[in-house]
Write a structure and sequence with these properties.
This protein is mainly alpha-helical and 317 residues long. 69% of the residues lie in helices and 8% in strands.
């Protein structure tokens, strides 16, 4: 049984999976390179101008760089073959990567909230100029471009960590746009908006914390598991009926996800007069069909139908 499980969790990547991996990795490499350059530029601008908002925005960009590095590490680990300690492979490393990303974002969020509040309390003022406006415009354009690219990659691969990366890019683009608007308002309003830089820093921190929570929430659902969708239930029942020629009363369905590798378990009911050999042949064909059509490894439990006892199962359509 363990050897069979190891083989199913250790299948070599087919052409489609290899393509998905290449797309995901290219997104990560491009994000690292672009975010390193953009983040360094904004940190430099924040330092020479004294703008906490731009400086915080710079660290938010570099946090995207860190998240992309974590994503690449997670993808690399997820490709490690199954072994005795990890019989279903290392696919959930992708989910661990998403948790690390959310932790990084939350850490920066709390830090800049504290710094922004202290700047307002200390009545620190700032006059926005050419360099701060340049950093804001560059950030909006570059980060939204990265977000669109990451979303395209997520649609091609279906990887939740790529969606997390895209959301992180989008958050940075939105926060940079808000900073830009705040700069314009502060520039036009003069002394009336002395508090704008500190307030914008707090706003960025709120966006970071909100993003961290959304990523953590989505990842937790994947780790804890979710119910089988009605559409998938219908497909499974249809396969059972097609292979066996009768309603096997499929029920008690569970899906366990390990990155791209998915394990499906459910129960079926057979006529008590059918031989174990015939029942096993039917189950074997159902498992192979599910693997071919639904890209899942199925483990099916056989039960005997009891005459006169109501059968609780998903009805065939």
């Amino acid at each position: 049984m363990l050897q069979n499980t190891l083989r199913s969790g250790n299948r070599p990547l087919d052409e489609a999976d290899a393509k998905k991996s290449r797309i995901a990795k290219s997104e990560g490499y491009i994000s690292v390179a672009v975010n390193t350059c953009l983040g360094s530029f904004k940190l430099w601008v924040g330092t020479i101008t004294g703008s906490l908002a731009v400086f915080a925005d710079g660290w938010e960009t570099l946090s995207d760089c860190i998240s992309s590095i974590v994503l690449l590490i997670g993808l690399k680990v997820s490709e490690v073959p199954a072994d005795k300690e990890h019989p279903f492979g290392h696919g959930r490393a992708e989910l661990v990567a998403s948790i690390i990303i959310s932790t990084i974002l939350a850490t920066f969020g709390f830090s800049f909230a504290k710094s922004g509040i202290m700047k307002i309390v200390n009545h620190e003022t700032l006059v926005f100029g050419f360099w701060t406006f340049s950093a804001g415009i560059a950030s909006v354009v570059v980060k939204e471009s990265l977000a669109q690219y990451a979303l395209w990659a997520e649609r091609k691969t279906g990887m939740i960590s790529l969606r997390a990366d895209a959301q992180s890019h989008r958050s940075d683009a939105i926060s940079s746009a808000l900073i830009l608007v705040g700069m314009i308002v502060a520039r036009l309003g003069g002394d009336m908006f002395w508090w704008m830089d500190g307030a914008l820093s707090v706003l960025i921190s709120a966006l970071l914390l909100r993003l961290a929570w959304s990523i953590l929430s989505a990842t937790s659902k994947k780790i804890l598991g979710s119910a089988v969708s009605p559409e998938l239930e219908e497909k499974i029942v249809e396969i059972c009926v097609r292979i066996s020629g009768t309603d096997l009363c499929a029920h008690h369905m569970h899906i366990h996800e390990y990155g791209e590798h998915k394990e499906l378990t459910f129960h079926t009911r057979f006529d008590g007069n059918m031989s174990m050999k015939d029942a096993h042949e039917i189950v074997d064909k159902v498992e192979k069909t599910i693997r071919a059509e639904l890209k899942m490894d199925a483990t099916i439990h056989l039960e005997i139908k009891k005459d006169g006892v109501p059968q609780r199962c998903i009805p065939a359509k």
